Structures are given as C-alpha cells and as structure tokens.
C-alpha cells in the first residue's frame, strides 16, 4: 500500500529547459515544486544548441547570466547560407532595446540542462530523476500523480493543484497531455545531430545548410566543438545508401556533403568526436498552452521548425510567460475556474509571442528544403545579403516576450 501523497504547489513533468526554468522561477517565488525527469543528466539531445540574444534578460532574472557567459561558446554575430557550392553571410540583428554588446551563443544541452535543473534544485525544487510519471488524473480537488523511479522501481504518489507539462512533443505516453504516435507520412521530419572537432567554422557564424528534402545548421559550441544538426524528410532518409554498414547519421552526413559541396570546406578536416543522435518524427506547429486543466510549456505547447534555431529560447521564454501568471494568481488558483482563466491568458500570450516565429520558420524551412527555390533566390541574396538579416528578424532574433 502506498503512503499518503506528497503535496506540492506545482508539479512539473519534464526537466529540460522549459520544465527547469518553470521550476526555478516558481521555487524562487516560494512555491513548493516537484520536477519529474525521466532521463539522468547530463545527457545529449538532438538540438541546435543555440540561444538567441533575446534570452539574456531571462538569464539575468534566473541568476544564471554569469554561469552561461562562462560556459557558452563564442558570440554569434553572423548568419549564413550554404547552398550547393554557394556561401553567403550577413550580420545578425541585436534585440532593440537589448543587452549592450551581448549576442546569442551556444551551449551543449548536457551542460545547459544540468545547469538549469541544478539551480532549480538549489532554490528548493524537489527533483525526481530519473523518474517518470506513469499516471496523472484530475480527482476534482487537484491532480494526483503516480511516479516511478526508472532505476529502483520505487513508486511515489504526488498531489498538486497545478501541473505543468514540459515533457516535449516527440514521445507518446499515458499522460493526458501526451499524444498517441501519429501514422507515418512521407514528409515526416527526422532530426540528426553530431559534434565535430577542428571544423573550419568561424566562431561568430551560424549558417543554414540547404539541401533537397531537408535543412541543417552549424554553430560553434562550448569546448571548441562545432554542432551540426539537421532535419531530413522520411522519403529522403529511407533510400540513403548504408550498404557498407554506415549508421543512419553517417549516411545523412554523406548525403549532405554530396548535396551541399560548400559544407565540405567546413567539415573537410573535422573529426566527429561523439556518436550521431537521431530523433523524431518532428511535427512543428502550435499545439495547446493549456489543455485538460494542465499547463503546457516548451515543445509540449508548440514548436518552430528547427531551421531558425529558436527552440531552446522559445522553451525558456514560454516558461517565463507561464510562471509570471501562476505567481501573480497563486492565492486564487486552487479553483478550476481560476486555473482556467490563467490558462486562457497564458495560451493567448504564448500565441502572441511565438506564433509569428512558428509561421516564419515554416516558410523558411519549406524554402530551404527546395534547392531550386534557393538557387533562384541566390542572385538576390548575393546582391543584398541583408535578406538573411531580415529572415533572422522574422524568426524572432530580436523579439522577446519579457518586459
């Protein structure tokens, strides 16, 4: 027989950037918070690693600006395009008004996620890791959650009137905020990521890689590593040659180098120092900020095509949007009606902040996956590289919901 449930002000399911940021902000405000994270940290993740300059005010608010500044890679001041044999670059815009002299930078997920979750724990959040939520139900007075340790099998019962789903969007599961795995589609996107040493990528440059049926990006990360992440359609991935025993990631890299010879100049002498990662299918789009009484943050609420490298920034900023509303309504949020009002307000604020980025990212992604369209655009981009700067503006590089 299980013990009586442990009561918390808020239960956060998922300890990635959205979940850890939510937990940290709530714990700093005096809330009792439990975080359930299924994976042990540090752990690698399919991700572009980049955080835009718009996130500096949030790092300051979290008390993590100095730690991020110490660990992250070089300042990214230019955006670029690698398409076929062509290479074009342009300046990235800074937020206005923005933190003087502070640009976007990249930090590996194994370091960033650990940093955020450790600070949430230091502020008083109870972190259950590696645990998973196996059941979540609304019992009328709040939510009852059954959690299980991934290593020992220990089981705990938790109760909270506030539940934040920050478990991402790629994994199906039994929770009411998780989706069933959708049927396969030819245009499903799968994400791949690898890390390279000795790549010939300037530290201040983050180029988009265009190729048929997909897109990718490069950025200099911490410890001198260059992160290559990409998305490729299922119908392009399936026929790739792996007759010599290559992994799927190695086959994808060979395809990228054949499709985009300009990439060879960057990776020609580079050494892949860690195994390839893959994930998917990725389904960009807007989901729900509030559903069935549960608040959703990060990719659980919606995600942009990774082509614009805004995923981590959006996840953390969505956590801020949610946390400020929960904190303001703490004394009256125990009722269903109050929770629903906060949920509607948060969902509307989320759409105002991020729907434009998601729409812009979709347009850029569909253009980047079509070499004929990119080649037709190249004369204009070469004559006016600031077209790339404009694209960065549209994708959210100067926009922040933080006031």
Can you put this structure into words, describing what you see?
By secondary structure, the protein is α+β, with helices and mostly antiparallel strands. It has a domain at about 5-45 and about 105-180 and about 285-365: FAD/NAD(P)-binding domain (3-Layer(bba) Sandwich). The chain contains 11 helices and 20 strands. It has helices at about 15-30, 55-60, 65-70, 110-120, 235, 250-260, 265, 310-330, 335-370, 370-385, 385-395, and strands spanning about 5-15, 35, 50, 80-85, 85-90, 105, 125-130, 130-140, 145-150, 155-165, 190-195, 205-210, 215-220, 225-235, 270, 275-280, 285, 290, 295, 300-305. The strands form 4 sheets. Strands 1, 2, 7, 8, 9, 10, 18 and 19 form an 8-stranded mixed β-sheet that branches. Strands 4, 5, 11, 12, 13, 14, 15 and 16 form an 8-stranded mixed β-sheet that branches. Helix 1 runs parallel beside helix 4 and helix 1 runs parallel beside helix 8 (about 310-330). The longest helix has about 35 residues, at about 335-370. It is globular, with a radius of gyration of 21 Å. The model has no long low-confidence stretch (mean pLDDT about 90).
């Amino acid at each position: 027989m299980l013990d009586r449930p442990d009561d918390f002000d808020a239960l956060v399911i998922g300890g990635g950037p959205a979940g850890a940021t939510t937990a940290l902000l709530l714990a700093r405000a005096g809330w009792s918070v439990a975080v359930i994270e299924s994976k042990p940290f540090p752990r690698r993740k399919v991700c572009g690693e980049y955080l835009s300059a718009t996130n500096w005010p949030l790092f300051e608010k979290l008390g993590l600006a100095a730690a991020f500044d110490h660990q992250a890679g070089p300042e990214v001041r230019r955006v670029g395009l690698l398409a076929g044999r062509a290479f074009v670059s342009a300046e990235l815009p800074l937020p206005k008004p923005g933190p003087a002299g502070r640009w976007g930078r990249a930090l590996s997920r194994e370091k960033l996620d650990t940093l955020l979750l450790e600070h949430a724990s230091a502020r008083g959040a109870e972190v259950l890791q590696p645990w998973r939520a196996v059941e979540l139900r609304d019992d009328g007075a709040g939510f009852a959650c059954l959690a299980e340790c991934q290593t020992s099998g220990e089981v705990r019962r938790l109760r909270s009137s506030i539940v934040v789903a920050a478990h991402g969007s790629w994994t199906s599961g039994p929770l009411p905020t998780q989706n069933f795995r959708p049927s396969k589609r030819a245009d499903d996107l799968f994400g791949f990521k690898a890390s390279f040493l000795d790549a010939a990528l300037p530290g201040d440059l983050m180029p988009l890689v265009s190729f048929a049926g997909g897109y990718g990006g490069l950025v200099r990360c911490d410890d001198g590593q260059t992160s290559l992440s990409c998305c490729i359609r299922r119908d392009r991935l399936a026929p790739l040659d792996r007759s010599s025993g290559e992994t799927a990631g190695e086959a994808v890299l060979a395809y990228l180098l054949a499709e985009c010879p300009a990439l060879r100049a960057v990776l020609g002498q580079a050494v892949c120092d860690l195994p390839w990662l893959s994930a998917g299918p990725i389904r960009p789009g807007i989901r729900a900020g509030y559903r069935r009484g549960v608040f959703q943050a990060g990719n659980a609420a919606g995600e942009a095509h990774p082509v614009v490298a805004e995923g981590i920034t959006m996840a953390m900023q969505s956590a801020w949007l949610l946390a400020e509303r929960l904190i303001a309504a703490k004394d009256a949020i125990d009722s269903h009606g109050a929770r629903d009002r906060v949920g509607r307000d948060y969902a509307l604020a989320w759409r105002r902040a991020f729907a434009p980025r998601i729409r812009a990212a979709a347009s850029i992604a569909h253009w980047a996956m079509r070499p004929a369209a990119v080649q037709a655009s190249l004369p204009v981009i070469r004559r006016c590289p600031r077209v790339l700067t404009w694209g960065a503006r549209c994708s959210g590089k100067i926009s922040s919901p933080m006031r």
